[in-house]
């Protein structure tokens, strides 16, 4: 638990205090320099008072492990908590059944708070176990740590709300989940359908092993996710193949042609595909085949050109094979661009909060996971990372994507990275799931909630911060680029994705849902003793015996 005197000193050192630590709570009048130290201390204390709730939320979402567009249990659980806290819930926003908003407050600025909630296919993993062992073979899992972000944001919102009520501070908050982020398939639709109209500022959060934020072009690639379905004609593959037209031939010609074309594409591009339907059986010429592509590049124009090239190659492959092809947009992500004034305000609060106090067990667990899985040995960090800026970031040559970019090009937005995982893990891998229902995940979410709640209070009490953030977006961010998505009014969200696999997997996965009324933590329910050094993993969850 943070010492209020230490926090006050840190706030004062960061130039954020407008009153001594011992002063009475501040009045509601806006401050030109940010929320008072007393208000921020109230927020920190409120987050700490909700540490148990944070642990329960983090562990519960880990146990649900729902992939994109199938986050139904996650939605019901989180919106139930927010409804009890006085938030107004709207479900099914932007035509997406598992998407929702939770709003609260009157007057003042409107601040959006969001984080992703979806899991990844095939990454089921026992938490707290250094060795790799799925809880349900073939089931999804939180191998990106998305189970921790919305719990952190909810705790931050509750803390900010409580302080605002106590100090009569006007302002509004809107919480929202990043549904199907791993498919890059919703945030552009949120923007298209007006979910962020009227929002003044936006804070997003993503799990990490460090504690930081940044501004400017982060180097994340823009992305187009597209599905190509080829249609042919069936025939006996041996008796009269000349009567058939193979849809799989169309897919294969497209893939070969794309791989040949790679030599002549910009070095910054990234592209990859999977054949999701390759026919039925060999002796039938397949009349249906599908390939799913991700096209990535650094900016709006480049990724649009890449997508255009993909469409042209698909059409040419259909012509070459006597088939037809239909194109379907499944997802989109704009390049990421953080807001400087908002990032600097948030970073001052991150510095004031500091890293969690890691126990000897925490450090031992991190080291054991790294040693067991032959990863680089690196201790849990004890100092917050530097503010990431264009001056200290390496030049990006392409890489991953995050559809928070679509919101970043709509309202002033930053991403706060909070320390709920351990260093040296592989992203989109079971290794990144191991720590995500352990004290490391819980402590990192608590730290992140403190910094976010303090930043929300700064926004609510500092009109100049809001004005500066909007001016930066208009004068600097929009100077050379404008939001230019490929998503149109005729592109529906791809809510069919992952439905079939969850219909098969959910009955077994339900047996592993966390029961906080019976067990203090999810590790207790699973019979795993933290830090689990050299400990065998239980074969089944206690609830299923």
Task: Report on the architecture of this protein.
The protein is of the alpha/beta class and 545 residues long. It has helices spanning 4-13, 37-49, 51-64, 72-84, 149-167, 187-192, 247-261, 300-321, 340-353, 360-372, 404-408, 439-461, 463-477, 499-510, 522-526, and strands at 88-91, 100-106, 110-116, 171-178, 201-208, 216-217, 222-231, 270-277, 288-297, 324-333, 337-338, 413-419. The strands form three sheets. Strands 1-2-4-3-5-12 form a six-stranded mixed sheet. The chain has a four-stranded antiparallel sheet with strand order 8-9-7-10. The protein has a two-stranded antiparallel sheet with strand order 6-11. The radius of gyration is 24 Å and the shape is globular. Residues 1-6 and 12-32 have low confidence and may be disordered.
List keywords for this structure.
37% helix; 12 strands; alpha/beta; disordered N terminus; four-stranded antiparallel β-sheet; 545 residues; globular
């Amino acid at each position: 638990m943070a010492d209020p005197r230490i926090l006050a000193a840190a706030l004062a050192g960061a130039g954020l205090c407008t009153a001594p630590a011992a002063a009475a709570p501040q009045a509601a009048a806006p401050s030109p320099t940010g929320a008072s130290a007393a208000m921020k201390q109230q927020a920190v204390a409120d987050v700490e008072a909700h540490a148990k709730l944070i642990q329960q939320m983090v562990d519960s979402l880990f146990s649900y492990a729902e992939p994109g567009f199938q986050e139904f249990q996650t939605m019901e659980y989180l919106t139930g908590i927010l409804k009890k806290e006085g938030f107004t819930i709207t479900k099914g926003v932007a035509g997406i059944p598992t998407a929702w908003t939770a709003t609260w407050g009157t007057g003042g600025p409107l601040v959006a708070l969001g984080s992703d909630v979806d899991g990844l296919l095939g990454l089921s993993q026992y938490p707290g176990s250094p060795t790799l062992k799925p809880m349900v073979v073939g089931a999804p899992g939180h191998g990106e740590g998305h189970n921790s972000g919305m719990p952190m944001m909810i705790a931050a919102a509750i803390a900010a709300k409580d302080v605002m009520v106590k100090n009569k501070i006007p302002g509004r908050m809107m919480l929202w989940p990043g549904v199907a982020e791993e498919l890059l398939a919703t945030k552009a639709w949120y923007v298209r359908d007006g979910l962020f109209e009227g929002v003044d500022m936006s804070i997003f959060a993503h799990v990490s092993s460090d504690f930081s934020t940044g501004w400017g072009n982060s180097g994340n690639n823009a992305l187009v996710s597209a599905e190509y379905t080829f249609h042919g004609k069936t025939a006996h593959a041996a008796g009269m193949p000349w009567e058939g037209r193979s849809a799989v031939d169309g897919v294969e010609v497209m893939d070969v042609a794309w791989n040949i074309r790679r030599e002549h594409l910009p070095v910054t591009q990234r592209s990859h595909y999977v054949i999701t339907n390759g026919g039925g059986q060999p002796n039938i010429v397949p009349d249906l085949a599908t390939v799913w592509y991700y096209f990535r590049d650094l900016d709006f124009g480049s990724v649009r050109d890449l997508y255009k090239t993909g469409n042209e190659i698909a059409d040419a492959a259909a012509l070459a094979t006597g088939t037809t092809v239909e194109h379907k947009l499944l997802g989109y992500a704009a390049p990421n661009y953080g807001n400087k004034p908002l990032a600097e305000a948030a970073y001052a609060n991150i510095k004031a909060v500091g890293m969690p106090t890691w126990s000897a067990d925490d450090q031992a667990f991190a080291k054991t996971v790294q040693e067991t899985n032959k990863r680089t040995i690196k201790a849990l960090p004890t100092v917050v990372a530097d503010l990431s800026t264009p001056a200290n970031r390496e030049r990006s040559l392409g890489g991953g994507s995050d559809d928070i970019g679509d919101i970043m090009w709509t309202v002033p937005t930053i991403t706060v990275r909070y320390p709920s995982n351990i260093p040296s893990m592989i992203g989109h891998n079971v290794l990144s799931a191991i720590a995500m229902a352990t004290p490391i995940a819980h402590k990192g979410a608590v730290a992140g909630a403190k910094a976010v709640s303090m930043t929300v209070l700064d926004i609510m009490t500092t009109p100049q911060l809001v004005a500066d953030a909007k001016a930066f977006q208009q004068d600097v961010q929009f100077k050379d680029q404008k939001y230019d998505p490929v998503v149109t009014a005729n592109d529906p969200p791809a809510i069919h994705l992952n439905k079939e696999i969850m219909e098969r997997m959910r009955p077994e996965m339900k047996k592993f849902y966390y029961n906080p009324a019976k067990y203090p933590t999810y590790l207790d329910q699973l019979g795993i003793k933290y830090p689990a050094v050299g400990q065998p993993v239980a074969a089944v969850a206690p609830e299923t015996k």
